[in-house]
Design a protein that fits this description.
Length: 431
């Protein structure tokens, strides 16, 4: 079912496509990639999808497609293929006074579709207009004009594999954070599958994708993410849209490279935000944050700082906040945009990482009021304490924690929030 939503997203986002070739990596044998069984499956998909264009495919071509499906799923690649033969039209059916009218375009598209189903409707207006101009350049009265050397766009689509077709798997891939460390992922598997399809489908609008530099990679990924966000917001899935942005912000620190660090630009909603300073900040943020954590706690390496995130995320993020307050992300040699990226990271971290108090309007300032001099009322963020803690509770974690420690349900123990640094003295007996 997930593939259906992914495919719907690709088909919606990719425009002017003559044919889609869908390859499902779950149907391929990974143990013997170039087996005849794998080749037969891929050939069948190519032959049925590209009927009228090509009938034969070499082992080398097929093996390359198999390798791509097994190594880079999900993904979409746009290709240009030649259309065999020529299409004969009668130019006298075209209006010379209004060359690029919808009537002229409709006529050309119909003639092309008669030659090969969907050929005309996969063409852009500009392509059709060029055909009209060529036909009308023939001598007046010409009744036979051959349209030759036609090309069409096809999309080779590798659908989701077994490790990327649930919302928790997608969240982990997008953020770089293990699924057990993330707060509840909003939405359904189907919504996330559709969003991924929209993203990959946007990639399918470009014959050449340029990921040669971090900047170009971020720009390409921004386009895909923006397409996914447009669909999510148009269909009322604003919580999923926010999570997607947050995961992209987090990925700048928790993924090995900054090529998908689109989050801060997505917050601004502006691809022009991705300038040299932005890219420098995206490339610097992981190292600068981990160095700050390692330095304060004497951990000795960035690797150990990342380990702290795993076992004590509360301590980790509070350390980052202290470094920000001290101005450590304004040091010489850092991007002028780095502080903004770190602020976005802190906010995303507090919204999405499990066990961390999220940012709350009005600063969640605590206030104690005396009632008639005899009772005290505690409010946090201008609401009662129970209402505040209910607002930040993670419903998915409650039954898990209750199973681990029933005392959490009975109220017999008090836990310090955010994995606070609690001093422990070995051998101390409390009486």
């Amino acid at each position: 079912m997930g593939d259906i939503d992914f495919i719907s997203g690709v088909s919606h986002a990719a425009h002017n496509v003559f044919a889609f070739v869908f390859i499902d990596p779950k149907l391929l044998d990974r143990r013997d990639p170039h087996s005849e069984k794998n080749r037969d499956y891929v050939r069948d998909e190519l032959t049925s999808s590209l009927e009228g264009l090509r009938t034969t495919f070499s082992d080398t071509e097929v093996d390359r497609i198999i390798d791509g499906a097994l190594s880079s799923s999900p993904s979409v690649e746009r290709r240009r293929l030649n259309v065999p033969g020529s299409v004969i039209i009668d130019p006298t059916n075209l209006s010379r006074t209004n060359r690029h009218s919808e009537a002229n375009r409709h006529f050309i598209r119909g003639e092309l579709d008669d030659h090969l189903d969907n050929l005309g409707h996969s063409m852009t207006d500009r392509q059709v207009d060029d055909i009209i101009d060529d036909a009308l350049s023939a001598p007046s009265g010409t009744r036979r004009f051959a349209i030759r050397n036609l090309k069409v766009s096809v999309c080779l689509v590798n659908t989701q594999d077994e490790h990327s077709d649930s919302k928790r798997e997608i969240a982990t891939i997008t953020s770089g954070i293990p699924r057990w460390r993330l707060r509840r992922v909003p939405g359904t598997d189907a919504i996330w599958d559709r969003a991924v399809g929209e993203h990959e489908g946007e990639h399918g609008n470009h014959t050449t994708l340029n990921f040669s530099t971090t900047k170009l990679s971020i720009i390409e990924e921004f386009r895909g993410d923006q397409q996914a966000l447009q669909w999510l917001r148009a269909n009322g899935h604003t919580d999923v849209a926010q999570a997607l942005i947050d995961y992209r912000v987090l990925s700048a620190v928790h993924s090995p490279n900054a090529g998908h660090a689109t989050g801060v630009a997505l917050i601004a909603g502006d691809i022009n935000k991705v300038n040299d300073s932005y890219v420098q900040a995206a490339e610097q943020m992981r190292a600068r944050i981990l160095q700050a954590v390692s330095r304060e706690h004497g951990l000795g390496s960035e690797r150990n700082a990342m380990r702290m995130f795993g076992y004590n995320p509360g301590r980790f993020i509070r350390t980052v906040e202290r470094a920000l307050a001290r101005g450590e992300f304004r040091a010489a040699g850092t991007s002028p945009d780095l502080e903004d990226h770190v602020k976005a990271y802190i906010a995303a971290f507090r919204r999405q990482v499990s066990g961390i108090t999220p940012p709350v309007p009005s600063g969640a300032r605590a206030s104690v009021d005396l009632d008639s001099g005899s009772r005290s009322n505690l409010t946090i963020g201008e609401v009662s304490a129970p209402e505040f803690f209910a607002s930040i509770a993670d419903p998915d974690q409650a039954p898990i924690m209750a199973e681990i420690d029933p005392a959490l349900v009975s109220g017999e123990s008090v836990r310090t929030p955010e994995n606070a640094e609690i001093s422990r003295t070995a051998g101390m007996k409390v009486v």
